[in-house]
């Protein structure tokens, strides 16, 4: 690997870290900048001045913002996210296994969605402008605009209530083995797959079609290479960089889609915790969840860019 | 842009969108009941009296759908209008000015877009009180970053044209260039983008309401109705699918129309 390439990767990595740092400031300071007194909002209109003062001290609102931010960030870097307001438990403990559950759901969905999307994209290119392509395009144009809860509840109604094939609620406990866990998350996984599939497949199709107009593809066609070999051996390796990008960006999207899907299926993940605590206005939990979601999202986007730098042969030999 | 020659999907989409707009505009005259009136028992099936049945507390679903359409479309419409005015203005301004103004605005937008919209909205909504004004503002501000990117890219393509250069040499100001030179030449892709952003706004608002963090009860809106009736699903009652389907039909229609609009612009470019 050339030093030039290493420098590019390091630059992108540094940019990711700076973004993350800026986002952490934004999350923390949103409580300062936005109108409304946090203590007042939490306690409601009927709060006594003493209660308000107590809560402000407890939240640390009496200290200057910069000092609080430094304390908070220092804690976060050591895995201490502070204490939840509503039940006085450490936030890290509340998040605990839930983060793992969320990653598990997103990971399993990704394992199904990614190969399926690439395969469908390749099929659409192979039969470009014929009926399989048109069918796939029409289906994806429709599914791309369906909300998660529509897909989720239709799946529950059909497969859990009418056919009774899968459970409608995805309750998991620590005693369940892998098989049981997979069984329970079939429907949420299907929902997530459905939601990200269309976009990934369309982008894969576009990336390969972009490569298909290159002269060397025409050369291969004139040599009489079979259509399947042209797509798999000639076009796919050269379209891999945009495809990797699309895949990872969609994985980042998966992390967000997970919030709604967890609420639909009552899955004990971090999305559910996040939403619950937004309505309870439990600021430390909300900030912790927001920061973790943001980290995963920014991390994946950074990974997408680094992978496409590495898979781009033009960058390996700088002029 | 001949409507008569538009594909069937685009025509169908336009008719459906028009239907939604009419329902939203004349809702209070069309609805047989008030949106929060309990008129029957819980989850009654479809009947002559209740064409779509009743909901989880015995309110008429048809009436709530009509009012819900009004609320959902109104909030999404205002939010998208705001995000467009702000996004287009700043985007064009960045492209026309160039230099450090462009740099600062673009980096700020990069930063906001590095963060998933829903997560950001949830953090903000945990601090500010949730009502129609804050919902509209949160949606508009977050969405304006996307509009900024598109508007800036479109303007950057146009700003290098000879007629803009001519206007500059004539001594026209920045605002003249933005509104008289760039806006007319980027209008069609922007209209297409408006449709897309609008359907995203509807989806986004409905997601927030579905999570219980959007339109607050007893006011009806699509996402909230899905949430209210979601328990019925486990008894095989499909009440919560009605608002979800209404939402899906609208977004699919918008996508059909937008697809056609974008086709139009690309064929114009190729001519």
Class inferred from helices and paired strands of chain A: mainly alpha
Q: State which percent range the strand residues of chain A make up.
A: under 5%
Number of strands of chain A: 0
Alpha-carbon distance between the two ends of chain A: 15 Å
Largest sheet of chain B: none
Oligomer classification: heterodimer
Taking pLDDT < 50 over at least 5 consecutive residues as the criterion, the unreliable ranges of chain A are none
General shape of chain B: elongated
Taking Cα atoms only, what radius of gyration of chain B do you get, to the nearest Å?
A: 22 Å
Q: What value does the average pLDDT of chain B take?
A: 83
Order of helices and strands of chain A: HHHHHHHHHHHHH
Backbone shape of chain A: globular
**Beta-strand residue fraction of chain B:** under 5%
Report what the structure shows.
- The complex is a heterodimer of chains A (319) and B (271).
- Chain A is built from 13 helices and no strands.
- By secondary structure, chain A is mostly helical.
- The longest helix of chain A has 38 residues, at 227-264.
- The two termini of chain A are 15 Å apart.
- The mean pLDDT of chain A is 80.
- Chain B is mainly α.
- Helix content of chain B is 72%, strand content 0%.
- Chain B is built from 10 helices and no strands.
- The longest helix of chain B is centred in the N-terminal third of the chain and has 37 residues, at 61-97.
- Chain B is elongated, with a radius of gyration of 22 Å.
- The model of chain B has no long low-confidence stretch (mean pLDDT 83).
Looking at this protein, list some descriptive labels:
heterodimer; A: 319 residues; mainly alpha; 13 helices; B: 271 residues
Task: Describe how the helices and strands are arranged.
The complex is a heterodimer of chains A (319) and B (271).
Chain A: H1 3-33, H2 38-43, H3 49-59, H4 65-77, H5 91-126, H6 131-143, H7 148-162, H8 178-184, H9 186-212, H10 215-223, H11 227-264, H12 270-280, H13 283-310
Helix pairs in contact in A: 1-13, 5-6, 5-9, 5-11, 5-13, 6-9, 7-9, 7-11, 9-11, 10-11, 11-12, 11-13, 12-13
Chain B: H1 8-30, H2 61-97, H3 99-113, H4 117-125, H5 132-159, H6 162-170, H7 174-185, H8 187-210, H9 222-228, H10 241-270
Helix pairs in contact in B: 1-2, 1-10, 2-3, 2-5, 2-7, 2-8, 3-5, 4-5, 5-8, 8-9, 8-10, 9-10
């Amino acid at each position: 690997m050339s030093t030039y390439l290493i420098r590019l990767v390091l630059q992108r990595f540094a940019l990711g870290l700076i973004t993350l740092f800026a986002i952490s400031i934004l999350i923390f300071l949103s409580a300062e900048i936005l109108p409304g007194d946090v203590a007042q909002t939490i306690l409601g209109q009927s709060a006594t001045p003493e209660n308000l003062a107590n809560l402000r001290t407890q939240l640390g609102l009496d200290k200057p913002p910069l000092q609080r931010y430094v304390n908070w960030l220092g804690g976060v870097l050591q895995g201490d996210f502070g204490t939840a307001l509503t039940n006085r438990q450490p936030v890290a403990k509340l998040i605990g296994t839930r983060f793992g559950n969320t990653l598990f759901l997103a990971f399993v969905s990704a394992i199904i969605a990614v190969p399926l999307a690439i395969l469908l994209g390749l099929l659409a290119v192979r039969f470009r402008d014929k009926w399989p392509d048109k069918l796939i395009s029409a289906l994806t144009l429709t599914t791309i605009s369906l909300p998660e809860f529509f897909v989720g509840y239709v799946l529950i109604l059909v497969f859990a209530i009418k056919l009774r094939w899968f459970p409608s609620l995805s309750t998991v406990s620590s005693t369940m083995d892998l098989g049981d866990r997979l069984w329970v998350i079939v429907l949420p996984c299907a929902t997530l797959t459905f939601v990200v599939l269309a976009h990934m497949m369309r982008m894969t199709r576009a990336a390969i079609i972009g490569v298909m107009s290159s002269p060397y593809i025409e050369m291969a066609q004139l040599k009489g290479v079979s259509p399947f070999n042209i797509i798999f051996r000639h076009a796919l390796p050269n379209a891999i960089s945009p495809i990797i990008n699309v895949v990872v960006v969609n994985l980042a999207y998966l992390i967000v889609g997970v919030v709604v899907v967890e609420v639909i299926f009552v899955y004990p993940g971090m999305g559910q915790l996040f939403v619950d605590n937004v309505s309870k206005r439990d600021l430390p939990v909300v900030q912790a969840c927001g920061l973790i979601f943001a980290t995963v999202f920014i991390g994946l986007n950074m990974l997408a860019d680094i992978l496409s730098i590495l898979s781009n042969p033009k960058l390996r030999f700088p002029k | 842009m001949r409507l008569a020659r538009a594909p069937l999907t685009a025509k169908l989409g336009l008719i459906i969108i028009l239907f939604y707009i009419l329902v939203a505009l004349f809702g209070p005259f069309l609805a047989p009941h008030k949106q929060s009136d309990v008129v029957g028992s819980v989850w009654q099936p479809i009947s002559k009296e209740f064409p779509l049945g009743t909901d989880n507390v015995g309110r008429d679903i048809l009436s709530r759908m009509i009012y819900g359409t009004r609320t959902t479309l109104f909030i999404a419409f205002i939010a998208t209008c705001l995000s467009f005015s702000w996004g287009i203005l700043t985007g064009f301004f960045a492209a026309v000015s160039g230099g450090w103004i462009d740099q600062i605005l673009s980096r700020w937008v990069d930063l906001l877009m590095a963060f998933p919209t829903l997560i950001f909205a949830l953090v903000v909504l945990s601090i500010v009180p949730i009502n129609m004004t804050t919902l509209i503002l949160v949606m508009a501000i977050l969405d304006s970053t996307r509009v900024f990117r598109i508007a800036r890219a479109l303007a950057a393509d146009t700003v290098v044209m000879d007629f803009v250069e001519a206007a500059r040499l004539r001594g026209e100001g920045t605002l003249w260039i933005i509104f008289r030179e760039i806006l007319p030449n980027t209008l069609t892709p922007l209209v297409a983008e408006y449709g897309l952003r609008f359907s995203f706004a509807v989806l986004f608002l409905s997601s927030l309401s579905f999570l219980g963090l959007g339109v607050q009860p007893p006011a009806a809106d699509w996402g909230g109705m899905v949430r209210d009736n979601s328990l019925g699903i486990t008894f095989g009652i499909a009440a919560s699918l009605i608002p979800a389907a209404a939402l899906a039909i609208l977004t699919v229609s918008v996508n059909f129309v937008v697809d056609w609009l974008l086709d139009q612009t690309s064929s114009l470019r190729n001519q």
